[in-house]
């Protein structure tokens, strides 16, 4: 995620439970992917696990981006009203 997205997330997290949960899960999954990625060799089972974690991490990022998009859209509507 880009810096401006991270800033917006940090602003919204205290008031948005769904965003908070998705962001925390994304970070947890990223740490697990990074941990597997740091290994010099992955067994077949670990390779499958890494792919699964990456898919789950992407799903959480999609949730985060959807929430941010909805927030931006609502802000745009409010500013034009």
Describe the structure.
It is built from three helices and no strands. The protein has helices at 3-12, 17-37, 44-80. It is elongated, with a radius of gyration of 16 Å. It is 84% helix and 0% strand. The chain has a domain at 18-30 and 43-69. By secondary structure, it is mainly α. The mean pLDDT is 94.
Give the arrangement of secondary structure elements.
Layout: H1 3-12, H2 17-37, H3 44-80
Query: What oligomeric state do these chains adopt?
Result: single chain
Mean pLDDT: 94
In helices, the fraction of residues equals over 70%
Biggest pleated-sheet summary: none
Order of helices and strands: HHH
Short structural summary:
The protein has 81 residues and is mostly helical.
Overview features:
single chain; 81 residues; mainly alpha; 3 helices; elongated
């Amino acid at each position: 995620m880009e810096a401006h997205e991270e800033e917006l997330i940090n602003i919204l997290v205290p008031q948005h439970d769904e965003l908070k949960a998705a962001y925390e899960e994304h970070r947890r999954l990223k740490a697990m992917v990074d941990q597997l990625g740091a290994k010099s060799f992955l067994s077949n089972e670990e390779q499958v696990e890494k792919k699964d974690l990456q898919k789950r991490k992407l799903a959480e990022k999609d949730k985060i981006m959807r929430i941010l998009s909805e927030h931006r859209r609502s802000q745009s509507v409010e500013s034009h009203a």
